[in-house]
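does this look right to u?? MTE version
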Amino acid sequence: MKNIDAKGHVTGRSVYVDDIPTLQGTVYGLPFGSPVAHGKIKEVDYSKALNFPGVVKILTYQDIKGENQIGGIFPDEELFAEKEVHFQGQPIALILAESDHIAYQARKLIEIEIEEQEPIVDPRIAQQKGQLIFPPRTFQLGKIDDVWQKCAHVFEGRADSNGQEHLYIETQGAYAIPLENGNIKISSSTQGPTAVQRTAASVLGVGMHRIEVDVVRLGGGFGGKEDQATPWGVMAALGVQVINRPVKLILNRMDDMKMTGKRHPYSSDYKIGLSEDLKILAYEATFYQNAGAAADLSPAVMERTLFHATNSYFVPNVKATAYSCKTNLPPNTAFRGFGGPQGMYVMESAIAHAASELNVPKHRIQKKNLLKDGDEFPYGQIAEDVGLHQIWSDVDSKFDIEQVHKRIERFNDEHHDVKKGYSLQPVTFGISFTKTPMNQARALVHIYSDGTVGVSTGAVEMGQGVNTKMLQIAAQMFSIDPAKVKLESTNTTRVANTSPSAASATSDLNGKALQNACKELIKRLKRSAAQHFKVELEDIALKDGWVVRRGVATTMTWEQLVDKAFLERVCLTENGHYATPVINFDKSIEKGHPFAYHVHGVALTEVTVDCIRGSYEFDSVKIVHDFGQTMNPSVDYGQIEGGLVQGIGWMTMEEVSYDPDGRLASNTLSTYKIPDIYSVPKEIIIEAMETEGSEMAILKSKAVGEPPLMYGLGAYFAIDYAVKAFNPNFNSTFDAPFTNEKVLMALYSNKE
Ligand code: MTE
Ligand code: HPA
Ligand code: MOS
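got this back:
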């Protein structure tokens, strides 16, 4: 089935928050943020702004009836700064005006006096000063201290990866309208409708039942709207509460870039020990996560870094420690991979370091240490249905690694100013929210009396195609024409207490809840048909819009059955619930079985580096990916291409840059470059490794949202290879992104 949004997107008819027709009397909200990264607020003078014609009101913390608090995991973040500011752009007030133009003019008239304090932007400095968001955590396997002396080779180093701007095409925004009796409806561009509802309720000092949150779809989220869509929805709702008029709040691009958190930059130390025959015997890593000024989702992101610290490899002795470091940057947040990519990058750097010192191809070490069934992850889960060896040999048989190596070596021998490089990048990603209670979902299904179907779930469509998958499931369960099924918006009054759409688990969780609802409805309908045909319930089936009795078609259509059941007063509505079985995790010992299953794959990346200019082009990325049994190839292949390109962007060109004062320098699209059609690989081949698939995956179709991003890690190491071909004296810096400037420096550093 095609993505049901394809036509709407291409014709520009798909609706986003800013497209919702505004009601008469709507006012426009514009946040006023801190001009400095750290300081004490001495005085704010709003009088000139308030006197500007068309300004209706300026909201501050003083207008809050409930709690001035939006922290999701820890209560450490104010909606509006009261006395201190901790990052540049931190909201202090919300201007409400008759037009956004007026609001922008008024914003310039606010006068603020801040006693500046020294900002910290470096996570290692924050850690040294004891500025941690919460205490460090360590995952351990085996006995690391005893093994180092048994290793034939030990290498130590440092690896840094930078942040990443989400750059969803639709910026953060919300539209809140007053309903009767003080109730408020918020249309929000959020991955987590319940988070917006819960936080709005507590800030406004009302019950959650007073707040309805509705989401049609997002113009991209990528994790940036898991938690950080919340303040804007809450501010709009607060405006409604205070002035009893509809409030629209859409961030412009520059405000969005400045005021919201991004992927966490990490600075890390590694130590890797290998045997003579290249088995990794020991791996130690220390991660310094740059959390920004408040916790946001950092504890969970940090946890996933630890879960994925050894990526696709089995290492018998592991010690991985992570510090969540408090700095004066906007609170960093979820971003596709959720800390996993940052952990894997350090492991890959350590292997690249070892390979370079030992003068063996990196992939020899990678292959030698691939996970297999029965291996234990450092967090205690035992690897099952791994298939990595199969995937690797598929890559080899389809794309011939040795041949690629020879071809590239020959090219490099024959060319002086242009060099090629390649890399192999295995990926292993755990599917489930690492916080076990979040792994639940609900779905509400109505069969209307004419046989059409309305489906509501907790899933938020953000371009990943989850609505298409939900529609497919309902149509398949009832065996009816998909045109008879409608996917409703995601709404907290229809489906309550939702987990955010995240962790790549949205279609597994919501799809299974939807299946459960459908199963119950089917049972009721079959009972009605069984009575009619005077047979057992098991003798009835629903097939292609018809009722089938003992394998033989009847004259009763789906519509007739529905109508009959309705007249018999059978309930044609059902609420399905699903909670992932088996999973658990005990933080006190850092062991358990946190993931329903893992997704695996391997990417082979080839790059050509222009050694005069330092620029590069990706010739190809060839991937063998474990889909299980994909329920929608076009959606899933799209996720792989998109994830890959986003990962390559993070590793190569996207450079989030803060100056030492904590001001975002890369605050526009001219200073922050993301991949465009010219910079994507010239060839992307995606081969499915069809496996049995996990029962825990919806229709055995494995989660696909985040894992492909990590194929992009291969881009870094392919460039590293090419640079070394030109300049054998180059000592890898493992300082991502490997921008053209850094490549140029690398090509000529210590060059003879
Ligand atoms: N794909 C598109 N087009 N837009 C997005 O915002 N978000 C990614 C991924 N793919 C995203 C996307 C992230 S961060 C996650 S967690 C998953 O989709 C969420 O959706 P899923 O759980 O349905 O895979
Ligand atoms: N992944 C994504 N989002 C999350 C997670 C996770 O594991 N935990 C909490 N939010
Ligand atoms: Mo995705 S980072 O789990 O929203």
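The first helix runs from residue 6 to 11. idk if thats expected tbh
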